[in-house]
Write a structure and sequence with these properties.
single chain; about 80 residues; mainly alpha; about 0% strand
Length: about 80
């Protein structure tokens, strides 16, 4: 799977593109996508935090990364 700015998931390996900083995304100022919204709602619920529905795509991606670290979600086993 290649890097995906809509979900904030970064992958590495043959054939994948290097991760681009969300602040550099051309569409980063647009509202978050449906998949981002859904995943953020899950992560914020698990972290016991409030969901901010006003985030942009770039902000949502950064928030997903932050909450994945805190909740342990999205981390690969054996990495």
């Amino acid at each position: 799977m290649a890097d995906d700015e809509t979900t904030g998931q970064n992958t590495t390996g043959p054939g994948s593109n290097p991760a681009k900083d969300p602040e550099d995304w051309v569409t980063g100022d647009e509202p978050m996508t449906g998949p981002q919204r859904s995943y953020l709602q899950t992560l914020t619920r698990e972290a016991g935090e409030e969901f901010d529905e006003t985030l942009t795509k770039a902000q949502a991606s950064e928030r997903i990364d932050e909450l994945q670290q805190r909740t342990g979600r999205g981390q690969r086993s054996g990495a």
